[in-house]
Amino acid sequence: MRLRPNLLIGGTLLGFVFVVAATALVWTPYDPVRTNLRRRLVPPSSDYWLGTDEFGRDVASRLMEGAVTSLTVAASTVLVALALGMAIGLAGGFLRGWTDRILGAINDTLLAFPGILLALGLLAVLGPSRWGIVLALGLAYAPSVARVVRGTVLSIREREFVEASRALGNSEAYTLLRHVLPHTAAPVTVLATSLFGWVILSESALSFLGLGVPPPAATWGNMLASARPFMQDAPILSIAPGVMIATCLLGVNLLGDALRDLLDPRDRA
Amino acid sequence: MTPVLEVDRLSIAAGGRRVVDSLSFRIAPGEALALVGESGSGKSATARAVIGLLPPGLAPDGGVIRFEGAPLEANSAALRKLRGPGIGMVFQEPMTSLNPAHRIGAQMEEGLALHTRLNRAERRNACIAMLERVGITDAPRRLEAYPHEFSGGMRQRIMLASVMLLRPRLLIADEPTTALDSLTQAEVMDLMAGLAREQGTALLLITHDLGLVARYADRALVMQHGRVVEEGPAAPLLDNPREAYTRALVDALPRRGPARAVPPAPPLIEARNLSVTYPKRGALFRRAEMFQAVDNVSLAIHPGEVVALVGGSGSGKTTLGRAMLHLVPVSGGQLLFRGTDVTARTGPALLDFRLACQIVFQDPYSSLDPRMRVRDIVAEPLRLPGGMPMEERHRRAEALLEEVGLGGLGTRFPHALSGGQRQRVAIARALVRDPAFVVADEAVSALDATVRKQVLGLLREQQRRRGFACLFVTHDLGVVEEIADRIVVMQHGRIVEEGPRDAVLDTPRHDYTRALLAAALRRPGTAA
Amino acid sequence: MLAYVLKRLLVALPTLLLVAASVFFLMRLIPGDPATVILGDAATPEAVADLRLAYGLDRPVLVQFALWIERALAGDLGRSITSGEAVGPLILARFQVTAAIVFASVGIAVLLAVPLGMLAAWKQNSWGDVAAVAAATFLLSIPSFWLGLIFLLVFGLWLGWVPVVGYVTFAEDFWGALHYIALPVVTLALIETGVLIRMARASTVEVLRLDYIAHARAKGVPEWRVLARHAFPNAFAPTLTLIGLIMGSLLGGIAVIETVFTLPGLGRLLVEAIFARDYPVIQGVMLFIAVIYVVVNLIVDLLYPVFDPRVTAG
């Protein structure tokens, strides 16, 4: 029943962020990284919609640029996590036996680290950079994907239609590809949506700490970090990037709920 | 005399649709009334409405329910006080009707604490006495156990005990034994009827099974689409149904078919001293114990023969059926197909065997891949050994679907079909390659009586026409009367009796067979 | 039951060992001589030689790992490159701050969210339920560090109710310390409340559909008791698992909130160490947090049978 508003509101919010990012690719009101020290901390006006920051850079332009950064980092990270996680999960679920046990033990160990802690540790080794973030967060979240994929494969292969496929004379490989693999699509899609949100949040947190995408490139997280000393004089600097992150996360969460309702219909006949 | 329960023009709506439409009936004190109907008849909704526990989505839509003359108001404090000592209810699913978080004793005692002034010790004694009454040994210790430590049949006894402990004047039993195998079913039903008689409790029995009605109800009310079709004393109603629907239900009860002579031939498939063992769920430090599911069993099935493999849950019948299809690893013995040993074959070497031997599973909801269209499901076996073009496969699949009564439904997905239709799809998939041997594993157990009749009919018709050999695995002796040439009875992983159908049904030699026969719900008058 | 406890403890041991191994080998991924990495660039050749001997750096890597474990078990996690302090005591001192925030916020969130989520499920699809779910979804979509900043702006700068910078320990000044951790705790509690309300509601909705709830009602059990006694333990069990996971993500992500409120906690220590390339501290903090996380989840697993006795059977 609540599926429609979820889809509608979530889609609108996330759609807005995507449109902002797409626009930023071709046009921003000002150059997001050009400083202008004579126009520092200007309040919002018709010239500078959201004012300027401590270096005189246009906040609106930087927010738009930040949308591009966040979305590309999140999308690349999700792809890395999915590729790694699917490979590990499918190998474990399909091959079973010792392969599964060893992969499972490694996976459980990685899951024993809170994701962001693992990312922090990896960043300590890799050093802060855009692709460092993608790799660190991708590695940190891959075990969750692996667990979901493996769990789905193991539960689906116990179902009777898989046994039926074997009884028909289909080979093990065909059975797994035709009857088991397609069933991982729905849970993986739902998980990928959540992952997208987690990564946006983690990336902005890491950037806030100064360990994410390094300046002068704009991200919502590092904008928040540098806004802190000017909280009193220019509160818009602290408010605007957070609103963007929250908009994005709310959109992702609502869409995730809607997807879950759509893809896992409760079969209660 | 005031009836215990009087339902007066009760209607129940789901959304805009009426699932129960102006239903009226009465139950006298101590009387047993059966509400009979198939899925969707509104019988369960009626039962829930009486005790004021309609599930979300259903709402009363007019009518009055009177208990001992006084109208019941939904959500009233008065109704809540009546629940338990006035009206008790036993649910269908023993696995979910006891709270997994609490001990048996605490759950049984709760009702007593709410509705009586007994003290702790008295409540405990009452619980122990009642547990013993329902046949649970070592009752004082069992009070401390959790529900998951009991089997389904035991849980249903405990459920019954906790309800009857409050000596209700009306007991509502909603499909109380549908989830149990036939032996356990008979035990639980006998217990329920006995307790109701002792306590003078009126019984409202909700069931889809006319066999139960004949044995346990004084009066029956047949429902279809939320309305009463026919009502009257149980025995005459079953013997002489007036309405067509009732007649269809009665006809759906199993009836013995004519005996056939299967022409003698060498066995098609043969198990020789076959054993299957499973590791029991392992304890921490000990080596996992092995559980002998099938114990040194020999069974030969001849071309064109229908063999029924009968036994209760845990008898090993399902495992033997799987083992004869080479679907579970065997731990000893041989499997011979057309005289050749196929026990050790794997992969491509097994393909000939796979193509000739097929299976129809019990649960049509899980045996069809939900992401494939019906036509593709049926066509899939034609993929092997290859060479047949896609159009040809689809054409054959459509033709067979037509033959099993599903013409034009080929592009649907399984979830858009009813249970009976899905089972037809499963049968079509098993038959599309014209197999020599088919295992039907409880293939009709999950279906409503009239649907079961039709599906069974389809299976028999196809068997007669195509002449495949069939191993029909079931817990219900009643079902096999229709279709079997030979009956094999299994208990504890071994064959305890085996012989031609009529011989086994009419002159059973083994006690276990006799018990199964006594529990089988068969057409009144045809019981042995 | 005893078998279950033993089994869980036994399973936790290899996990802990693997966790330690991954922390150890992660640090070995850093390019350069481990001795220089551990002592910093300014180390004298004598100090490097001593360390090589003590840590067995000339011996096989597995021996080095064993030696490291041995010292870690004795509480010796090395010395900070920047301050020269022993890492073990440093972590313990900083952990007090972190523990106070994490446990207080999770405690508040559980007390708030579980009853709310259960009530929402009980009144499923009422406007109150819809409002609760909407509010929860909104809350969990707000980044904690941003909410913290806004709170600082409103309650610290504009209203002046709480100090904006600084910290005193509970031992020094109990009420003062409460002042300092109030905002971070409220910030985290609000966000975790969002997560937990949804979880508690979802699992209660599942449970309320089951026959044993209808059975309890059919016995005449009053509604409050149906919820408290029959639905709660079964609905709470999955929520309990989530609480363990939340503790972990809080411990891992605590650095951000400590940065916002300038609290001298474990997360801040880790981030500062990463900036300073103070590897013994990084290694020590990561090991410590991961061990705490494993222990918290172990406790959750051991508590689980209290709410769902079925798990002890497997």
Question: What's the short version?
Answer:
The complex is a heterotrimer of chains A (269), B (528) and C (314). Chain B is built from 19 helices and 21 strands. Chain B is α/β, with parallel strands linked by helices and 528 residues long.
Provide the descriptors you would attach to this structure in a database record.
heterotrimer; A: 269 residues; mainly alpha; 10 helices; 72% helix; disordered C terminus; B: 528 residues; alpha/beta; six-stranded mixed sheet; 19 helices; 21 strands; 34% helix
Task: Describe this structure as you would to a colleague.
The complex is a heterotrimer of chains A (269), B (528) and C (314). Chain A has helices at residues 3-26, 59-95, 97-111, 115-126, 130-156, 160-167, 172-180, 185-209, 220-227, 235-263. Chain A is mainly alpha-helical and 269 residues long. The longest helix of chain A is centred in the first third of the chain and has 37 residues, at 59-95. The radius of gyration of chain A is 22 Å and the shape is elongated. Mean pLDDT of chain A is 87; it is low at 265-269. Chain B is α/β, with parallel strands linked by helices. Chain B is 34% helix and 24% strand. In chain B, the strands form 4 sheets. Chain B has a 6-stranded mixed sheet, with helices on both faces. Chain B is globular. Chain C is mainly α. Chain C has 12 helices and no strands. Chain C has helices at 2-28, 34-39, 45-55, 61-73, 87-122, 127-140, 144-158, 174-208, 211-218, 223-260, 266-276, 279-307. In chain C, helix 5 (87-122) packs antiparallel against helix 6 (127-140), helix 5 packs across helix 8 and helix 10 (223-260) runs antiparallel to helix 12. Chain C is flat and about 80 Å long. Chains in contact: A-B, A-C, B-C.
